[in-house]
Amino acid sequence: MDFEAISKFVSHSDRVKCVDIHPVKPWILTSLHTGVVQIWNYETKTLVKAIQCSENSVRSAKFIPQKNWISTASDDRKVRIFDSESFNLIHEFEAHSDFIRSIVIHPTLPYLISASDDKTIKVWDWENEWRLEQQFDGHEHYVMQMAINPYDTDVLISASLDKTLKIWKLGEEKEVGMLEGHHKGVNCVAFLGKSRIVSGSDDRSIRVWDYETKSCIESLEGSHQHNITFLSSFNDWIISGSEDNYVKIWNSKSLRLGKELNFEMGRVWCIGIEESGIISVGFDSGAVVLKI
């Protein structure tokens, strides 16, 4: 399988809950269980800045490149916005009534979308003083992760510990679809081309779904030996990570395992991928950046 890292950078830190890669600058953003976010330069392999933004775990952090901002979401239920030049705090607000698990930045609209243990998904408009633009209700357990459809950016899919995935559309109150089949909570979801969705669960399976029919077309049972924590797609590959310490790369067409990697940095929690082939993975004891 043609999947080789041509360079590698390892940053050692406390448990990394989220990673993001800047689309222009050679920066990765890591959010830590300790409440710190770090910006690393992966070319010079140096720490650019560390920000103590909460006393609680920061489960998600994303660049907002169109505004030169950094966004964070933490267990104190707050979203915080920092300037990515001065690293000063610009704005903060209480977004949910429980831990915030995930945030995504809309690619074209001025929206930050957050998902929480309070079972809701909220859409925040930064051009209108961070007004709550929309709220999606319907999950019966924690909402763990979300993904925006890259081919129809009005569509959002969410993964929940209620064992389901729900499809939502901006401007519509109720879900427009639901995917059922996992035996335990669903932790992660990604779009796989125009017509497929891939999800990972505490049942240790990866499932591939047909987006149009909302049906499961393949289930990779026992794909990991522990809970699956992230999934992402890159070119012809699906990349998965798990609390079994392994990162695995699958062929997205044949769904065969192409490679498995153990960086010996503990449990695997998160991934960030940039279109140029930069991949960052977060672990119990730090982050790894690979150039493919």
From TrEMBL:
It is found in: Cytoplasmic vesicle, COPI-coated vesicle membrane. Pfam families: WD40. WD repeats lie at residues 9-50, 93-125, 136-178, 179-219, 221-251. GO terms for biological process: endoplasmic reticulum to Golgi vesicle-mediated transport; intra-Golgi vesicle-mediated transport; intracellular protein transport; retrograde vesicle-mediated transport, Golgi to endoplasmic reticulum. SUPFAM superfamilies: WD40 repeat-like. One of its GO terms (cellular component) is COPI vesicle coat. Its main location: membrane. InterPro entries: Coatomer_complex_subunit, WD40/YVTN_repeat-like_dom_sf, WD40_PAC1, WD40_repeat_dom_sf, WD40_rpt. It is a peripheral membrane protein. Keywords: Repeat, WD repeat. The coatomer is a cytosolic protein complex that binds to dilysine motifs and reversibly associates with Golgi non-clathrin-coated vesicles, which further mediate biosynthetic protein transport from the ER, via the Golgi up to the trans Golgi network. Coatomer complex is required for budding from Golgi membranes, and is essential for the retrograde Golgi-to-ER transport of dilysine-tagged proteins. This is Beta'-coat protein. It comes from Caenorhabditis remanei.
